[in-house]
Amino acid sequence: MSGSAADLRVAALVVRGAASVWTGARVVEDADVLCLDGRVVAVGPDAADAAPDGAAVLDARGCAVVPGLVNAHHHLLQSAFRTLPGTRGVPMRAWLGVMAGAYAATRVDPELCRAAAAVGLAEGLLCGVTTVADHHLTWPAGADHLGMAGATTDAARALGARLVFVRGTAGDDADVAAASAEALVGLAGGLVSVAVGPAGVHSDGPETFAALREVALRHGLARRTQANEQVDVVVAQERYGCRPLELLEEWGWLEPGVTVAHLCAVTEDEVARVASAGVRATHAPGCDLPMGWGLAPAGALLDAGVVVGLGTSGGGSNDAGHLLADARLALQASPLSGRPLTAVECLTMATRGSALGLGRDELGHLEPGAAADLAVYDLGGVADAGVADPLAGLLWAAPGRRPRDVAVAGAVVVRDGALAHAEERALAAELRTLLAARA
Asked: Which domain holds residue 116?
């Protein structure tokens, strides 16, 4: 990587002359966005007039500007384990076994964590994702926990990406997990924050949920877990004779401050239970639908008043970290779950909904006071010709669409489709070389 982007916040950034700016609450046409000290100050036709001398400028004529996308559920380590034989279209129990074998064979350590995270975070930035929640679940016996987590956070800082590092567990000893989480709290700062979260009731028992809940409440950390994905429902019934959400409620994880990913096989009563508990949800259609593991009823959750975010999940099940593509998939697949979503609802899930699920009110929108995280999409190509609604067209038109420019905290981290602080091909080559050496 070429240097560090840890302190790349600029004093002033002007995004000038956008055809439209979607703040997350409104669309402003023919507008500028003025950002000072990493925050949005103004959005409007004349916002640039107040810019100080020497401000950085992005020319957004003919472009749409939207809040930076927030990937609320990723497993960055899995960026090194995409399309593995035996992982496509198989029951989740079988998939878990294949992935565990691959981790053991490759050796998960700080070097691999950094290389995989760099690739996954760079991929996200190039796709307009300014914040990633990395639910890290793999901690081999005797592993250097601080070194692994630190390698991941270092990769984020070097690229200028926001990272929520989720100290996850998947069958870890409860005391070890809690002690590790305590140690990792110190990694937070700048663009990096820390959260905690067991993988789910299929892998972790009440002791682990209790221990991590205590750490989270002591330090004010967000809590995340997974529920009602295929194996989760089966194991909960086999082991405890009940449903996953019943266990989460019993174990103190169905309450405000908790976000639950997947929620595929939920009943109407369970949707109501999630809503009444003040729990937030993360939809992951790019993982669950193609793998055949289910599809969350995102429309029903929204109608019940649940805040719903969007996540890609990891490369072991969703081989891309392209959150806008998954927002499009959520839009297309939603009729299968009973209630069609709108493009604005899906964009909101990928921005504001995800941010609120992470406890980050300043992210996922561009109203004054928000973090200056944004993506600029060029609408001048043939894919956008004839599009009546440019905002809806961001999803419906141009599958695989990438932004031209991306800023995080007012610093430009992608310009003209290229990373500002690293060479994309060098990051890819580094991970390939590392994997080849360990094969």
From this structure: 69-357
